[in-house]
Amino acid sequence: MSRLDDLEAQSIFILREAFARLRRIGLLWSLGKDSNVMIWIARKAFFGRVPFPVLHVDTGKKFPEMYAFRERYAVEWNLDLKVEPCPPVEAVDPTLPPAARSAARKTEGLKLALAKYGFDGLIAGIRRDEEPTRAKERVFSLRGIEGRWDVRDQAPEFWDHFNAAPPSGAHMRIHPILHWTEIDIWRYTRREGLPIIPLYLARNGKRYRSLGDTDITFPHASDAASIDDIIAELEATTIPERAGRAMDHEAEDAFERLRVTGYL
Amino acid sequence: MNMLPNDKILPGHQTPNRPLLRVVIVGHVDHGKSTLIGRLLHETGSLPEGKLQTINAVSDRRGVAFEWSFLLDALQTERDQGITLDTSQIRLRTASCDVVLIDAPGHAEFVRNMVTGAAQADAALLVIDAAEGVREQTRRHVHLLHILGISQLAVVVNKMDRVGYAQSRFVEIKAAVAGELSELGFSAVTIVPAAARHGDGVAQRTPALAWHSGPTVLEMLESFTPAKPLAELPLRIPVQAVYRFDDRRIVAGRIESGRLAVGDEIVVLPRGATARVRSIEQWPALAGSPLAAASRAGQSIGLTLDDQIFVERGDMIASPQQSATAARLLRARVFWLHEQALCVGSNVGVRVGTAECSGKVTLIENAIDPGELAPSKAQAIARNHIGEIEIALTHPIAADVHVQNPRTGRLVLDFAGRISGGGPILARDGDPAGARGRAQEGTPLAAQAGRLNALLDALPAPERLARFCREVAGRLVFTTSFGLEDQAILHMLHEQDIDIDVVTLDTGRLFPETYQLWSETEERYGRRIRAIYPEHGKLESLVAAHGINGFYASRAARTACCHVRKVEPLNRALAGAAAWIVGLRADQSGHRGATALTAVDARGLLKFSPLFDWTREAVQSYVAAHRIPLNPLHGSGFASIGCAPCTRAIAPGEPERAGRWWWEQDGKKECGLHNAGGGKAVAEPAQP
Which CATH number fits domain A3-180+251-260: 3.40.50.620, 3.30.390.50, 3.40.50.80, 3.30.420.40? Predict the structure, then answer.
């Protein structure tokens, strides 16, 4: 088996465990490259159909190309799409730095969706190599009441046995592609022929490596005009993936604060 | 091994099919794990741009000097308190492979996180402070690696700068570490010196460690190999679910071991119904895809069966010829991570593969604190301790024993809604001699040997020995010729106060040095070693027929001598015994390569070789570490020592037993004590 086959087999195993062990789960679709890969693998795991709702927690500030992608592929992929709005920025902790505060709207939207649907499990497409606090995640990670991550008290997890009994009112975050890297995602996207949002490709010498809200996400200088080019660029670069995501860099603890209070 | 080029290795060296290796860094708190990781990343050019500046800023903000641990200790509490709370992972690229470095906390408080990290690893690097040596978490971590099934281990003696880069200190600590490791079941471990903070010995050979000719840390990493899927073992698929999304009934799961092809007959456990595989399903359907016809270990698949037999999550699909056992009672060696101790009577959740049920602990034995190596008489396994349990299950579960299948031969324990322990399955109630109690009368010896192997294989040698002596009823005989292995075993018996019959065969032709050692050994261990002598009538006839040194004349004459002086006396020593304990090792010679832990000797008793999987180097470090008296002839080139006229020293590079009956040219350097099957070699030799 190739490395991509190994990664895919492990992700399928995790998705099937989540579906079997939890009562009601949803998959968080941010429309980006990672969650697109995750949806594709979910279709493989369940033989063509994603058997649970797919949630887009919508800040309303995504790029038009992202909304177009959502409308097209929700239909083509036969998804049970739920679009959930986020409260205005005024509803968010004012002590957070501005970009983090803006990003935290998504956390609030998530809490509303959790309450609305009664999920006890949410599948999210985060990866260890993106960011150091994500590198400390479990595959099945408990979020307490209010969605809080108690990073000081994570349960043991080994041999592909997962903790999946959240107390009432709490939920599990399930991370099926935690073990993938950015370049794995692109190699898999190429191998499987998956569609991508064109913003990832260079236009006028710039492209987006990671997509978020329009006002806090920035492109970097690049000539990568195809997936092949992106892979070649990643093979050579030493610039981190989330360099263009403002909320990661405002303060040393900004991203951890976001995550502890329920951000992805 | 690959030397690093002077310039940085670009990430471009990463290609999809380079080996991917997962290595956990373990060791006592503050022995320099995080610094070593930082240095490895730095020296291989694996750090993203701006990372050094970030670490600098984070260090400045806390008023400390540049601190590598901030690279992975990303949490505010970790940085503020200067400790690693939870495990983390980071990628490293060497010239030949991609490595996932897994950082594991060294604090006793966070052993559960160390286990979480280490369980994902193919191999481990143990970091030991050159000034401090082996400490509590060093031991605990090595024990846990062993029970987690991680067999590849290397040791970095770090902070050599703190001991002035002294080679003597390295040699001293290396001997001590090798001794401790061999007791825990890790033999022939590579041990290298380093000063991670300054980069000495990490990726470069630096002048400070010029005396070190072995590998660098990076080269050691590259010498590890990734774990391979178990395609060659019998088929095992724990069933994750049965999907009925359309008119198909698809059984979904991951192949943990073996292979599966359309048309194969399978059995569904624990109920035992059989069917044939009608199809291997996949989406999107690809015409001619190899997966559709056959699959193998590591793949997550879906299949349909030709017969509508009942299948549900928790079942195990297996090959009917080599099936697993449906067990209601399991014996396992487990580590325990919950604050509340595991006790006899505790109710816990038991998971094997996807099967789950409740279980009640019925027995606890051999509980230890692996940090202290202190045995405990307690009928409980405290947090971060290890012990053996028997657990009665509410429902039958399909399970293997660990020595037969490491993936389906292990269990995980749930307590109060949280994973709290786990370990290898040693035995099941379905096994021949039963999972509980001592070996029973009338059990065929082979089955007893098999059961003992399953029970003891995973244990360190001293524990194997102690357990064997407790499990086997009847008289036990240990025969010694005062060789390296024999001396090590005698030491283990003495240390654990095991009182069995210790016997030596005095042929009358031993080296003076051997008699001297015999006497010293009796003195050191305060016990008599029972000597068995040849029958005088037979000996007199032998010498009369062949002459005093007649054994040089022919092979027949030599075996006749061996028979009278060794084999016949041994038969008397073993008459009526239940088991015979010996110091054989599989790698002593090609002929001994098939040595097993427990075998059946044709004399009709068990033959137990507790050091069967040790290397000569491991035995040497063990005896050195414990200052065990040795035959001085070992120092002059004698490896295996028998009778004086029939043993010579060997040249470097010669096989260990080349010095025995050196004038004989065929490879079988045996006197007949240990001939395969043991028995028929005992027949009367050809008379002259």
Answer: 3.40.50.620
Q: Which fold has domain B11-223?
A: Rossmann fold (3.40.50)
Class of B236-318 in CATH: mainly beta
How many Cβ pairs closer than 8 A exist between chain A and B?
Answer: 152
Residue B472 structure tokens:
């086997």
Instruction: List the beta strands (DSSP E) in B559-626.
Output: 579-581, 598-601, 605-608
Do B387 and B334 contact (CB within 8 A), yes or no?
Answer: yes
Fold: same for B11-223 and B453-682: yes
Option in B11, B243, B248 nearest A238 (CB): B11
Check residue B553 and give its pLDDT: 86
What ipTM, to 2 d.p.?
Answer: 0.95
Categorize the per-residue pLDDT at B290 as very low, low, confident or very high, splitting at 50, 70 and 90. low
Q: pLDDT category, B669, cuts 50, 70, 90?
A: confident
CA B62 vs. chain centroid, Å, equals: 43
Chain B positions in Cβ-Cβ contact with residue A8 (cut-off 8 Å): 300
Distance CA(A5)–CA(B84), nearest Å, equals 33
**Cβ contact B10–A133 (<8 Å):** no
Instruction: Choose which CATH entry (3.40.50.300, 2.40.128.110, 2.40.30.10, 3.30.420.10) describes domain B326-437.
Output: 2.40.30.10
Inter-residue contact B489 to B481 (CB < 8 Å): no
Task: Note the CATH number of domain B453-682.
Answer: 3.40.50.620
pTM higher than 0.80 for the full model? no
Tokens of B305: 């069966």
Report the half-sphere exposure of B191 (CA within 13 A, side-chain side): 27
B530 forms beta bridges with B503
User: Is there a contact between B58 and A252 if contact means CB atoms under 8 Å apart?
Assistant: yes
Residues in chain B closer than 8 A to A261 (CB atoms)? none
Mutate to test the interface with A, among B240, B246, B260, B279 (most CBs of A within 10 A): B240
Nearest CA in chain A to B246: A47
Where do the domains of chain A lie? Answer: 3-180+251-260, 184-248
Nearest to B142 by CA among B195, B179, B194, B171: B179
Q: Which residues in B lie closer than 8 A to residue A187 (C-beta atoms)?
A: 16
Closest CB to B119: pick one of A8, A51, A158: A158
